[in-house]
Amino acid sequence: IVKQGAALRVVPTVERAEPAELAKGVLSFAFGPAGTHLAFIADALPGKQGNLHLARQGKGGWRDVELAREVGEFRWAQRSPRLAWLERYDPRVRAGTLGVGGDDLGRRTVAANVSEVDLTSDGRHVAFLQHTTRGGYSVDLGLAHLDPSAASSAAPVAPGVFGFAFSPDARWLYYRTRCVRNAEACDVERIPADGLPAGGKP
User: Fold this and answer.
1) What are the φ/ψ torsions at residue 74 (nearest 5 degrees)?
2) pTM score, two decimals?
3) How far apart are CA 178 and CA 116, in angstroms?
4) Helix count (H) and strand count (E) of the chain?
């Protein structure tokens, strides 16, 4: 797969075979972890965000479906064919509506006004920063479980968070909170990747 200008093409390794064009107006693309899925943002124009497509490799070549419109960013889980994206993205504030999807998951909407996203390496959980105005402006950390057999429901983790990440083994969610001096010094807390039990503390 190569990006030539704004076009995305499949270049065969067989001699004298012609490249096949997958899409035009492509801003970015990335393979899923197994190499059988390809996500790309296409149909972009000046002043207009592109749309997110998911292509799967089959016997007849690559076939794609449109997952979301006006997408600014997307990312794959490291070891699972699940991805997360920000649709209806506003580049002025670098935020949008968090969506998730995958072969066994379908397309789901998780939360609005989201600016940062991270998936566990196994694709079972997604964490995000959400801009809220409840009781004053705040950037809060949220967490959702991506269970194919149940709807994804987001739960708050902590208010006023400056940076977060899942551990590589997908067991823990770390985040910085209670920051002072423009986030020069913060407390780092850790919770299980699937959330705190009732009555539990970070």
Assistant:
1) -150, 160
2) 0.86
3) 18
4) 0, 17
